[in-house]
Automatic annotation (TrEMBL):
Coiled-coil regions listed in the entry: none
Keyword Signal among UniProt keywords: no
Name this polypeptide is given: YhbY family RNA-binding protein
PANTHER family membership: RNA-BINDING PROTEIN YHBY
Record key words, sorted: RNA-binding
PROSITE patterns: CRM (PS51295)
Organism for this UniProt entry: Paraburkholderia panacisoli
Gene Ontology molecular functions: RNA binding
Biased composition (Basic residues): 158-175
Annotated region described as Disordered, given as residue ranges: 136-175
Domain CRM: residue ranges: 4-100
Stretches that traverse the bilayer: none
The keyword RNA-binding is assigned to this record: yes
Length: 175
């Protein structure tokens, strides 16, 4: 399968998203084995955007590994800096997982519908709360969690606390 093609604007956006990531797969002295390819496939399925570290001093060999990974897994090459490779495989290129009772929209779908181009919020979280009557089954409920909110252990949604301002700063500004 050929590697996916990505526009330069999209590639720049993905590079900025990949900047803080740590490498999740290491390609060692053995090179690109089937086990390494399956591990890359697992991480692409979980994260869509991953970094791979290739140990080896031969640049041409690293480029060949990079191209082979992208061709084999139908992923898009995003960035190659030194021994780090950044690879992206969109969710649409992966098979959809269906549940018995109907799938809840994923966090990414909810974020795209609400505010495209923003971070990871809002996201849809499935909260299971026990019913008030002890003999009944607990109820599952889909809840939208926004950027400044979190879900507590009891299933409640709490807003994040405001950032504390420095005592030193407020003291300096009053003079």
């Amino acid at each position: 399968m050929p590697a996916l093609k990505v526009s330069s604007d999209q590639r720049a956006e993905l590079r900025s998203q990949a900047h803080p990531l740590k490498p999740v797969v290491l390609v060692g002295a053995e090179g690109l084995t089937d086990a390494v390819l399956s591990e890359i496939k697992v991480h692409l399925g979980a994260h869509q955007l991953i970094k791979i570290r290739v140990f080896g001093d031969d640049r041409e060999e690293r480029i060949a590994i990079y191209e082979q990974i992208c061709d084999t897994l139908n992923a898009a090459p995003i960035q190659h800096i030194g021994k780090l490779l950044v690879i992206w495989k969109p969710e649409s290129a992966q098979p959809a997982v269906k549940t018995k009772r109907g799938a809840l929209p994923s966090a990414r779908e909810a974020a795209v519908e609400a505010k495209p181009g923003k971070g990871r919020a809002p996201r849809v979280v499935k909260v299971v709360k026990p019913s008030e009557i002890p003999m009944r089954k607990p109820k599952a409920k889909a809840v939208v969690v926004r950027g400044n909110e979190r879900v507590t252990q009891g299933g409640n949604i709490k807003r994040a606390k405001k950032r504390q301002t420095s005592a030193k700063r407020s003291h300096q500004s009053s003079k």
